[in-house]
Amino acid sequence: SQTIHQWPATLVQPVGSPLSLECTVEGTSNPNLYWYRQAAGRGLQLLFYSVGIGQISSEVPQNLSASRPQDRQFILSSKKLLLSDSGFYLCAWSGGAPRYGYTFGSGTRLTVV
Amino acid sequence: AQKVTQAQTEISVVEKEDVTLDCVYETRDTTYYLFWYKQPPSGELVFLIRRNSFDEQNEISGRYSWNFQKSTSSFNFTITASQVVDSAVYFCALRGPTKDAGNMLTFGGGTRLMVKP
Question: Which 3 state secondary structure label does DSSP give B70?
Fold first, then answer.
């Protein structure tokens, strides 16, 4: 069966520090991968998605970046965090067929101080 | 363009009450897929149900039921005899028919349900 792992679960980082969040999927190949952010009490904002190794599409301009160095690995990064980067970050994967929804990771709660 | 609207941002009920969460969608596709997700306080989004556009049969799963009405573009979710454990944010979502990379889930803004004991 397919599983998705996301870590760390919580993170407190100072302003200006770098960020690296990792997401890996097991039990499937060539998944579509997604990074979402959810501000406190708000909805889901799609940040990046990827349909293959090295293929990244950005949905919103900001100081975050994403990379997909391996088929089942998706990394969210920042060189210098801002206070506004605080939030709950969710990774998700889906198969290619549209009848499938997304399967989400357990999320990372990031607080920038 | 696709759009999903969950007009109720917050609902508060007392345990054992029935509650309906509304979801209205817009799409130009004739084939599409609708979903409901639950986000408990822990944060992870949990898949609840998928419905495709050519199957308008309503579904019941225990205390949960879904009413899909294509004529009104609605896919409402009812919890019968609510329990405190039902407290969560619920998201309705829509996905189009193609395998294109750009065919992504479109989420509604979510409805926060609070069930008080």
Answer: helix
